[in-house]
């Protein structure tokens, strides 16, 4: 009989489709980003990210409890300090906004993992990810002096209760320096989730509204990767692995699923994909206009990241996805 092979046989019943599904998204795959600000009772919606808020620490704690109850195992914290300076003081101060938020979350929800973004752009007055030459308006960050600030920041974050350090500035050698700093401070067991392949992307625009971290001049192309490069991502992950990274991240995710796949094939380490703000904003805008089915598009996209090799997904859709999964 023709045709002999009929793949549709395995699609004929919902339960059969479920049984033979190759990739399944679960709440354990998700990490929810949160933006902490100083003050009390603050929940300021981000204009370009409907449903995402800048939150004071008391509100961060409320969100953390909800996230944990939904079965999401981790959050990642970003901080917006009240004051910024060229030394990024707010990033490494014992009473910095991320440090205060970390302590509060760990006290309220001790079993929720707190990942912290270890970068300086939210804390510098110029919006770049480290030291600049005096008078430099190009945005070319001085690599090696910046490493010392990152080390100091990571140690202060772990002292405040952070479970995982996630350096995102794409400085050469940042994993090695942070690993050494943590080990020297007797935090040998704290893992590093490196933003190993972070591209200079237009998809970050809404995040800069949320984190108030838009560069005041220049851009970040001298330290973030060129979107046209793929082999370079493999070079970056090789370096980070050699320097002691425990997990690797690809950012953004949607336009870089080939990179997620290549990174996953090249390493045995867990791979995270960051479903970034611009990707989220596009889906939300289309959904609010009634142009797409938000649930189906979100779940299809997140499953696509899993299929491309992501073990973990950082996404602003995490709470909604968890609700849909918990059904």
Structure description:
The protein is of the alpha/beta class. It has 12 helices and 10 strands. Strands 1, 2, 3, 4, 5, 6, 7, 8, 9 and 10 form a 10-stranded mixed β-sheet that branches. The N and C termini lie far apart (42 Å).
Gist of the model:
The chain is of the alpha/beta class and 327 residues long. The chain contains twelve helices and ten strands.
Element-level helix/strand string: HEEEHEHHEHEHEHHEHEHHEH
Class by alpha and beta content: alpha/beta
Separate helix tally: 12
Proportion of strand residues: 15-25%
Sheet with the most strands? 10 strands, mixed
What keyword list fits this structure?
327 residues; alpha/beta; ten-stranded mixed sheet; 16% strand
What's the layout of helices and strands?
Blueprint: H1 14-20, E1 30-37, E2 43-45, E3 53-56, H2 57-69, E4 74-80, H3 89-92, H4 97-108, E5 113-118, H5 143-159, E6 164-167, H6 174-184, E7 193-198, H7 205-211, H8 231-243, E8 247-251, H9 257-266, E9 271-275, H10 277-288, H11 294-307, E10 312-315, H12 318-326
Parallel strand pairs: 1-3, 1-4, 1-10, 4-5, 5-6, 7-8, 8-9, 9-10
Antiparallel strand pairs: 2-3
Helix pairs in contact: 2-4, 5-6
